Amino acid sequence: MSEPSPAVARPGFPVSRQVLADHVYEALLEWLMDGRLKPGAAVSIDGMARELDVSPTPVREALARLEHTGMVRRVALKGYRVAPVFTREDFAELMEARLSIEPVNARLACARMTPEGLEALKQAVEDLKTAPRGGTFAEYRSYLEADERFHQLIAAQASNQFLLAAYNTLGGQIQRFRLFGGVGITDAEQAISEHQAVLDAMMSGDPEKAAQKMVDHVEKVRGRAIADAPEE
């Protein structure tokens, strides 16, 4: 097992329970994305707690969060296991769900966008353009964060609690980025151009155009993800 992530607090530095849980989540996510925790491997709460020098509680909380992303799965009476990498069929189904939700979010968000929300979207695209794209999770984490933030902002600006909840259950960004471990972001230029097109539509104030640009983006991501994903 690798050394604990530097994000995890060291003994002697008191932190709040939530901050500690966040640090543990980031450490485990890094190990999962970089493949240090292999698909199908058992994830011991007590073992991870010892490895990270924390109590089992923040590990348990982090694994519960990771379960929502689809990165780990809880097996009855057996604890957690690392989930398999998404297959082409998995990505096809995921993108089908995204196509049912995100264009609607874009349409509503365009109509309801606040000036502050629009500025935040612009910043997310700028951050995407300048973020590193290397082959380790540490190198492309900020790119993933900017990508996630862009879609999350649109979901939030749609101002529909049920659509937001539906979007949050997908975990789609994490699964797509799992394919980049060891190779880096392979579709950055295409993805940035597509995000910019969605942003431009939002700035134009045309809800239907915003929805269509989101359809275009998700469909293109679907094609790239299916091409990159392993077969069953």
From TrEMBL:
Gene3D superfamilies the UniProt entry points to? GntR ligand-binding domain-like (1.20.120.530), Winged helix-like DNA-binding domain superfamily/Winged helix DNA-binding domain (1.10.10.10)
Q: In this protein, which residues make up the domain named HTH gntR-type?
A: 18-85
In terms of InterPro entries, this protein maps to: GntR_C (IPR011711), TF_FadR/GntR_C (IPR008920), Tscrpt_reg_HTH_GntR (IPR000524), WH-like_DNA-bd_sf (IPR036388), WH_DNA-bd_sf (IPR036390)
CDD domains attached here?
WHTH_GntR
**Which superkingdom, per the lineage?**
Bacteria
Q: Keywords for this entry? A: DNA-binding, Transcription, Transcription regulation
Q: Name one GO molecular function term.
A: DNA binding
Q: Do the record's keywords include Nucleotide-binding? A: no
One Pfam entry name = GntR
* Protein name per UniProt: DNA-binding GntR family transcriptional regulator
